Amino acid sequence: MSGAPPEPRALLRELFAAGVAAVDGGAAVRRAVRRAGGGVEIVGTPARFLLVPERAHVLAAGKAALAMARAWHAHAGVPRAGLAIAREPGELPAPWRVHVGGHPLPTDASAQAGRAALAFAAAVPADAELVVLLSGGASSLMSAPLPGLTLAELRETTSLLLRSGAEIGELNGVRKHLTAVSGGRLAEAMGARAAVVLVLSDVIGDDFGTIASGPLAPDPTTFAGAIATLRKRGCWASVAAAVRTHLERGAAGEIPETPKPSAQLFERTRHLVVANNERALDAVAERARSWDLHLVREPRPIRGEARDVGARIAAELLDPHTPKQESPQRRLWIFGGETTVSVRGDGRGGRCQELALAAALKLAGERRMTLLAAGTDGSDGPTPAAGAFADGETIARGSAAGVDAEQALARNDSYGFFAREGGLFVTGPTGTNALDVVMVLVEPHS
Hints:
alpha/beta, glycerate kinase, domain 1, Rossmann fold, 15 strands, 37% helix, globular
C-alpha cells in the first residue's frame, strides 16, 4: 500500500475493522446463499441445499440477527414468514417481525422472545422450509425459563457464572437445563422437520452445541454436569433453591433431559458455519500484508483468565529468545479466541480490557510495542467499549491521570483505568460476533 504507514493505533484500528468486516452477518449470508434454478442454493460442506424462497420460514437470532435477516431478504428472496430476535431495535420489511431481547443477562423481553421463537418453530407448516440464521448471544436474547423457574432466578444464575469466570461451554451447559429454547429444545418444538442453520460462530472450535446454547443441536451435557459446573465455580450454594431443586430433580430422572445426539429429530437438520474467528484473523492478516507487515500468527486460540493471557503475551514478546523476534519490518502478532474474567473486585471492565491492562503492566517502558485487544461484537463486558489499547506508556499515563494500574487490576476495574488513561477502544455494536482479536504491533529497532 502506498503512502506513509499510519501511526500504531490508527493502523490497529484499520486492521480490526478489516477483521470485523470479514465476519459481518450480512456478508456471511451473501457468501453462503445464491439463486439457482428458481430456488436458493445454500453452499457449504458437506452438502448443498436447494430451497424455494417463497416457502421459507426464516428465524434469525443473535447479535447479528438484523444483518443476517436483511441479507437473506435481499439476496435469497422474501420469505413466507420471518422472525428476528435481536439485541438492538431495528426495522425489517414485511413479513418480518422483530423482538428485542436482553444480553448478557436475560430480561422479560428475552423470555417473550424465547416463547415467540418456540411458537414460530412449532407453526411452520408441512410444505414449508425452515431456515435459522444463528449468531452468538441468542441464548440470552431468547431465554425463556423452564416451568417452575423464574426469570429472576435465571438472571441470578447467569450473573453468578459470568462473575465466576466460567467458560462459555460451562455457562451454556447450565443454561441448557434451565431454559426452554436452548439445548436442542427449539428443534423439539419444530418436530422432525427439515431445517438448515447458517451459523456465525462465536465459539472456539465452532461447536454447534455451544454456539447460542445449541437451540437446534443435540446436547451432550446433562443435569448432573450442570450441577458439577455450579459446584466447580463456587456458585452452587448461592443459586436460588428452586434452581438447585430443578437440577437435582433432573439428575434424578424426574425431569426429561435435553435431546441427545441419538435423537432422530436432528437427522434432517444441517448446520453450516458461514463466518468465525478464523475468517476474521485471515482478513486482519490480508490487510496487514498490504502494509508490508511481517506477520506472526499464533495458531492456538487464546483462552483462560484474561489477566494471565495478557501477561503471557507481553512476556513472550519481550523475551529476546522468542522466534522471529527481530525483523527490519514492522511486525504484527495476531491472536484470536476468547478469555474469561473471574470477578473478585468491585470495579467495571471486560475480558479484553483486563487483558490489555495486564499486558500494559509488563510492557511498561517498552516503546516499540502497541497492543489492541477487542471483541468483534463491539462489546466488552458490561461497558460501552470494545476493548483497549496498551503500550509502554500506558502505566505512566494512568499514573499521571491519578489511577494505579495494579490496584485497578486487583479490583477488576480495567474500564475505570482506561477511561481516565485514554486507552479505551470504542466501536459501538458491530452487528456481528466472532470472538476476540488481539494484535500487537512491534516497531523495528531504530
